[in-house]
Amino acid sequence: AQTVTQSQPEMSVQEAETVTLSCTYDTSESDYYLFWYKQPPSRQMILVIRQEAYKQQNATENRFSVNFQKAAKSFSLKISDSQLGDAAMYFCAYRRAGGATNKLIFGTGTLLAVQP
Amino acid sequence: DGGITQSPKYLFRKEGQNVTLSCEQNLNHDAMYWYRQDPGQGLRLIYYSQIVNDFQKGDIAEGYSVSREKKESFPLTVTSAQKNPTAFYLCASSIDRRTGASTDTQYFGPGTRLTVL
After folding, report:
1. What is the rounded CA–CA span in Å between residue A78 and residue A88?
2. Per-residue pLDDT tens digits for B12-30
3. Contact call for residues B80 and B17 (beta carbons, < 8 A)
4. How many CB pairs under 8 A join A and B?
5. Minimal Cα distance from B46: which residue of A?
């Protein structure tokens, strides 16, 4: 069975600094998708960034970028120039490509605090 | 605006009652999902539906039921058989992968907080 592990329950960063959130996953599949979702205090899940496993190039969305290491099964999120609005719970998620369902498998989350 | 709406935002249930959580989307997405979130945990899949009039159990379907009579709507009923229903419930939708969409990312509604009194 696929699993997703986020080993950092909490992280803190100074405003304007850079922080990296870790995520590892376990799968025997070769084709899959990886996602980072943000859950602010409003509790709505917001997509931050996604990565297709067949793409070697790391995904980037403005200040957010990932370091995707397929062989190591690692998928970290880097937030540059951190802003107060980045404070939230961040979830890493995995989805198998193909198959009978689009089920997302989530990690337990990392709570990010941004210090002014 | 296109999006996913869930109602109510807060719901209180007495022991032994069934309650229904609403989820509506106007994104023209084929697939819809229900997740449950408990403190300190990620989301877990309750039910999902890939097309109208069809739905499948997820990982924690016991004590829940759904219907999918319209493409836009996927209500979740929490029955009295659900032993520990207090949680945050999130609905999501995505384009059906069978149409050829390569990533069909799931987009989430704002959630419903259910509390058993």
Report:
1. 14
2. 988 888 999 999 999 888 8
3. yes
4. 59
5. A103
